[in-house]
Amino acid sequence: MQACHVAFAGNPNAGKTTLFNNVTGSRQHVGNYPGITVERKEGRLIHQDTELNIVDLPGCYSLTAYTQEELVARQVLVEERPELVVNVVDATKLERHLYLTIQFMELGAPILLALNMMDDVRNKGMSIDLKKLAKGMGCPVVGTVARSGEGKPELLDRIIEAAEDQSTWQPLQISYGPDIDPVLETLIATIEQHQFLTQRYPSRWLAIKYLEDDEQIIEQGRKENPSIADELNSIVENLRDHCAKTLNSFPEAIIADYRYGFIHSLLKRGIVTYPEDVERMDLTDNLDKVLTHKVFGPALMMILLYLMFQITFTLGDYPLQALEFLFSWLGRTVGGWLPNGGYLQSLVVSGVIDGVGGVLSFVPLIVIMFIMIAFLEDCGYMARVAYMMDKIFRTFGLHGSSVMPFIISGGIAGGCAVPGVMAARTLRSPREKLATILTAPFMPCGAKIPVFLLLIGAFFAEYRPLIMFGITLTAWAMALLVARLLRSTLIRGESTPFVMELPPYRWPTLQGILIHTWERTWEYIKKAGTVILAISILLWLAMTFPRPDHTQTESFNLQRSQLQQQLRHANTTEQVAQLEGQLTEISRRQSLEALKSSAAGQLGKMLEPISSWAGFNWRTNIALIGGVAAKEVIVSTLGTAYSLGEVDSDEPTSLIDRIAKDNDWNRISAISAILFVLLYAPCFVTIVVMARETSWRWACFALFFNTAIAFGLATLVYQTGLRLF
């Protein structure tokens, strides 16, 4: 059986990933590119006795490495050299999207054009002659509708045909005019004469990158041969001076103009026709009149956000209760199989089942939330949120593009700060990028949601959608206020303008929504079964050892022995009940003292004089310290702490019930804890990514600065609440 390596590439919002999901289905896996924190999605399938290995490249607008995504896309093409690049373009924006196609062809990559969204082309009254386009571009062209699967069989057939026909890379050559072409030829001659980086790149493409001032290529050139690199840079600088004086322009702009001129002249050959007598206002334009209206748009966005939480809690209530009961029953059943009172029983029941089970209990709510978020992303609404928020963000010293890192981090609950921080790479201004990275972790990510659900379920069960809605608004407000503070003090500078292409509205496919939901849910479950499990076991050890001193243990054993002797001689039912209650209390106190004597308990007690200002007891302190590793650990640690500090009863008890019955907790301390968890130190993985994207100095700053803000606000709320209520 033959194998064929294929790359799917294209502009953001062209439907590339939807087409990739449609083609590969469940036969795909997700990871990161080696050494680079950018998601890599790969899929495999067999068609016509050929195994297709397909990689979904990050969406990009060009092959000049302005962003991490563009750099990754280029590296895959250069280093892996796929046998075919399926360039997915939005057929309704053909001229703009073919700009990237030209760059692929200049690199020499064998191209198959997948004209996506052909249904929108028909709805607009347009028509595209695919045969003429294929002849003009010199590559196969297939029309597709990714979300419905239209064109998929033909696409797979043409992929195999094109991969067999185009086994060699042949770079496209375009004239860039009398000012650029002679200099380009000089650069090519110098590069070829010295074999300068030609083992990796075509010489003409390399020369163009020097003209476009591509930082990554220029840096590679310096490392390869500094003298040749200086010679090339000198030639380019002379051209820059010439273009500035004679054309009032620069080489990058001239090259871009000629590329668009090539595309425009091609499309004028009757390839695209438009209706002459009918003015069409498509669905996207009509919806945007309302959904992006300066008054109705934000109001509808708030209503939509609230409805998301209402639906989540309405549909997820019973599955949540069922899982809580299941893990409580499992803990009691497994505990009954193991030696009573031993370390193994404690580890399995308190450390593993109560710890990890507390996190997994919230999976139904997480799934429902992820489904709705995937729907909003796939239908094109998320881009409108960024558009509407731009003016507000500029007021606070941020950029409209900062909205997407916030949303990805959990701005519409359920994201993750790690990809949110990485998404800030698209910001060109270093100051706006830094302010975005420092404040994105304030968002209610998927790791924080179980903590919120736990405390809301314990103290605000009747107001759950409203409280979650309030938490989300608070996160946005705090992120903007802190960003304004940072941009006015430590990170001063002007805001840059916002430019973004709004994708058309589309009805998402069920397959796409399910794939996106499963990917996020599986990451959550996998984290609970690996990272959270490991941390839960470590925290169980910290909450179990060292054991109480011998004197304290003997004191409890003596009291228990005396009560048991009295119980044997009890004459009435009332005496029996009273003595059994005292025995239970002795066991509870002994378990509690053992927890306090442990390393974690001692640390929690040591911090309690300070943490009590915000309403946190020593158990909560243990959980919050563990939460620096991963926020889900807060729930698992509380589950372990309350399990170790309690005596088994005849009925299964959920963590929500245990916290609700703890006298150290009340509604005011619950609100204080919610605010603290929302705002305090990012998790360890996020800190590492922040350091990678900025520096360790700024990552450590976020660790302490965010915690200080969180504790200050939590203390203010708790102390004010005590005095008012």
Secondary-structure map with pairings?
Blueprint: E1 2-10, H1 16-24, E2 28-32, E3 39-47, E4 50-56, H2 68-80, E5 84-90, H3 94-107, E6 111-116, H4 118-123, E7 127-128, H5 130-137, E8 141-143, H6 152-165, H7 181-193, H8 203-211, H9 215-224, H10 226-246, H11 251-267, E9 272-273, H12 283-291, H13 296-337, H14 343-360, H15 363-379, H16 381-395, H17 403-411, H18 417-423, H19 430-439, H20 449-459, H21 464-488, H22 510-529, H23 531-544, H24 550-568, H25 573-597, H26 599-611, H27 618-626, H28 632-644, H29 655-661, H30 667-679, H31 684-693, H32 696-724
Parallel strand pairs: 1-4, 1-5, 5-6, 6-8
Antiparallel strand pairs: 2-3, 3-4, 7-9
Describe this structure in words.
Helix 13 (296-337) crosses helix 21, helix 24 (550-568) packs antiparallel against helix 25 (573-597) and helix 27 packs antiparallel against helix 28. The strands form two sheets. A seven-stranded mixed sheet has the order 2-3-4-1-5-6-8, sandwiched between helices. The chain has a two-stranded antiparallel ribbon with strand order 7-9. The longest helix has 42 residues, at 296-337. Strand 5, helix 3 and strand 6 form a beta-alpha-beta unit. It has 32 helices and nine strands. Mean pLDDT is 82; it is low at 30-37, 277-281 and 647-652. 65% of the residues lie in helices and 7% in strands. With 725 residues, it is α/β, with parallel strands linked by helices.
